[in-house]
Amino acid sequence: MLARLEAMEYNKLKNTLIIGWNIEAAGLYDKIITSPALGYNIRGFVNPSGVREKSHYKNVPVIGDLSNFGDNIQRLEISDALIILSASEKKYLSEIIKECVKYGIEYKIVSDTYDSEYGRVIRDVIKDVWNPEGFGLRRIIDIFASLILMILLLPLFLIIAIVIKYESSGPVFYSQQRYGKNGRIFAVHKFRSMVQDAEKKSGPMWAQKKDPRITKTGAFIRKMRIDELPQLLNVLKGDMSVIGPRPERPFFADSFKTKIPMYINRLKVKPGITGLAQVMVGYDETMEDVKEKVEKDIDYIDNSSKWYMNFKVLWKTIFVVLLGEGQ
After folding, report:
1. 229 and 270 fall within a common domain
2. How far apart are CA 110 and CA 87, in angstroms?
3. Nearest CA to 24 among 121, 73, 89?
4. What are the C-alpha distances in Å from 222 to residues 64, 240, 272, 277?
5. 115 in a domain, yes or no?
6. What residues make up the domain containing 298?
7. What is this structure's pTM?
8. 106-109 and 80-83 beta bridge pairing
9. Which of 97, 118, 276, 283 has most Cβ atoms within 10 angstroms of its Cβ?
10. How far apart are CA 7 and CA 11, in angstroms?
11. How many structural domains is the chain composed of?
12. CA angle (69 as vertex; 291, 110 as ends), nearest 5
């Protein structure tokens, strides 16, 4: 009977890979096997730099490298990955996360030291970057907030729509593809603030100060952040949350992911209409701005279950709007 109960408990464990082949990975494994409550069943190690010969740590094998990652995920029925890289392995971080997202497995980055390449301290292997218990309540708040705001702001929406239409030809609203949670692409909605077909000749590019493509009405609604309000519809549909990292265009995000390894962590949560990075850093003008915003986004994600963080973002958003700090 005892053996049967132990087998049942074992079957509840999550099949997990430790990605990294170093002394820290071995230490992480030792911690896990002495803490069964963590719920991990370690099936093997992945050596991101490649495997030249068979290797084991305490009878747990190195099952391969990134070239056969997908095959091992399916063969071993892996649901989770714990990423713990040495200094020489950190160059593989972006590729590792991309593979985890591709095959739909949960991943956590484990680090006990600050590293500029990681972007911040990732403290706890047990702690997920998003509190799953908060999903239901958060979604309810998002639905009610978006509905109430859309009703209250309807007169403003009508005025803005009339002015946009009067000033320049083209549609009132502008839709653009952005990355959502887990890299899912969706159409984000905004009031049109630029001339029609603004990027037809130039292609995708960041908005700049005194951008000639921006209309007079567009300059005002961008300054007051009014152009983002139609995204309340995105919140109602479930593509976005009221608060979260701002959704980025695939053209730019794909570039950022290769230059900032932690950038892809933003895709583990729903994007938001407003966010900590948005109100603390503002618009992107340089790559350093992007890196700073990523740090703020990860800080918010790590603390998103703490309501003071959400109130901080909302409070700061009110001042940003009232002071007209948009661009």
Report:
1. yes
2. 13
3. 89
4. 50, 20, 17, 17
5. yes
6. 134-322
7. 0.60
8. parallel
9. 276
10. 6
11. 2
12. 45
